[in-house]
Amino acid sequence: MQRRTFLAGSLAGLSAGTVLPGLTGTANAAPAAAADEELLTLLTRFNEAQIPLVLGNYESTGDSVRTVARKARRLVSGYIWSRSRFHHDAALLTPLRFLVDKLESTQHDDGTYDVGNLHSPPDSAFAVQDFCTVYSLLEADGSPDTEAHRAVLARVIRKAGPALATGGVHTPNHRWEVSAALARTHHLFPDRRYAARIDDWLDEGIDATPDGIYSERSATYASEVTNPSLLTIAWLRHKPELLGFVRRNLEATLHLLEPNGEVDTIASRRQDQNRVREVWWYLTQFRELALHDRDGRFATVAKDIERRGTGELGDFLAEVLERPELAAVLPDPKAAPTDFVAEFPAHALARVRRGDRTATIFGGTDFHDIPVIASGLSTNPTFFKLRQGAAILDSVRLSPQFFSTGHFRSDGLRRTGSRTFRLGDEVKVPYHLPLPKRYRRKDGAYPLTLDGRFYAAMDFPHRPKQYRTLRTSVTVAESGDGFDLTFALDGSEVPFAIELCFRAGGTLSGVESLGAPGNYQLVEGTGAYAVGTDRIEFGPGNGATRVAMDPGERYTQLNGSLVPDGQRVYVTGRSPGRLTLRLRTSS
Length: 587
What we know:
Blueprint: H1 2-15, E1 18-19, E2 33-34, H2 37-57, H3 65-80, H4 93-105, E3 113-115, E4 117-120, H5 121-141, H6 147-166, H7 172-188, H8 192-202, H9 219-236, H10 243-256, E5 262-263, E6 277-278, H11 283-293, H12 296-308, H13 317-322, E7 339-344, E8 349-354, E9 357-362, E10 384-388, E11 391-400, E12 413-417, E13 420-432, E14 448-450, E15 455-457, E16 465-479, E17 482-490, E18 495-502, E19 507-509, E20 512-513, E21 519-521, E22 527-531, E23 534-539, H14 553-556, E24 567-574, E25 577-586
Parallel strand pairs: 21-24
Antiparallel strand pairs: 1-2, 3-4, 5-6, 7-8, 8-9, 9-10, 10-11, 11-18, 12-13, 13-16, 14-15, 16-17, 17-25, 18-24, 19-22, 20-21, 22-23, 23-25
């Protein structure tokens, strides 16, 4: 009853244009403040656009429990919000009942759900967070027309709680998602087992590096999972010390932001290492820390997200209705950094920004410690990115044809000057000599072992070896309005190809088509890629030698591919030798 009274009062205050005191559960609670009317109008408009979409497909049979829960959350946000045109609209009640009944009918007897993974506590936790939010908002609203809906939700939440308190996880972020779901469940239906399990997970320590980036190095799992979960635990379990991890992550994100609202993901160990991620996911995180710390930089990012108006911003309405203090007017803006060289040593990553020109230099793949291709590892061979406004060079990669060992992946990153960095690697491939006599077998049944590239029944570890070696270094130097990339390869005589992949949508000039769609070669002189007045020039070409990009035997054995999407330009060469690729930008 206490929670219902609090939330009902908060909603009434928000509707009147004020917010109640404080960022609850934090050390520096802010005083009562006026509501940010621009934010409320924006979130209301976006939620109103979501609701007809839900009404049109709420009976979809293919929806996972997480999708069903999110649809219910969208309907409830509009239903309880007095400023919404869907406020207490009876047309929402039957679809909402269908959704909550589906949540109950698909729940296993043990309280979990199948979401790809079977009987999955962590995947269930993602949905339980939404269940609890929906239940809390309906309780605060108190409409008798939703009493039956609330009864179903209460049963579902109570049934899920013990499963989350006893079940396991798969990935680092799952610990915090499960803990946040338990914090919400415990707040609604107290059970000391839930609090104890949260403390068990937290006692393992938060997986954040001194750089402020979590161990999965993923913008996706920071923005969608870890940061929101830690903020929820801090709020409901009165653990303000968790805010420090979120703060450091957001400070790191300030230096990973692109001018168009994308977030650099090159260092990620998860699926976003090859995808575009956008900052709108961070809206309420930046707002909360801006309000808590009175940080104008975070306020600027939050307002930029609102002005940009991309993404599913309507999903944040539920958070603001649940915690109206998040809708307070932000502190005075302070410019977020736009002119810097920022290093992230724990990830061998550097970011350079000069206004609308940004670059990323990366030498921190996991490939040298764990030479396999697998989920949860950083294996992206892109080591440099550059953009000038809308002209985007999404990746620069290097592939020598050296025993099918694949792309160059730097073993670290070293700063060599105020504006220069060095990437480097040495690859050694063995030829195996006869086994020493003490390891020989008459039956020829030797163990299946790894050569480094492939497996064979050869007992490779006990064989003497002769090696062929390829040494590669790439020096990245900021130069005026661009960068010079100097490639030096020696140790073996091999052809190589440098691949520049520009984002689709621009115009290439000065290059020759290689016949295959999207493939070009810079044979001589200088090429250019332009989007409107934004332009990246690159060159010089190094002759007409044709060299294919070899992703390596780990990929080709299973018909895998590392061809990036976009317009790909190749510059070729042969080692030993030295080649400097000049990249210049203009707008």
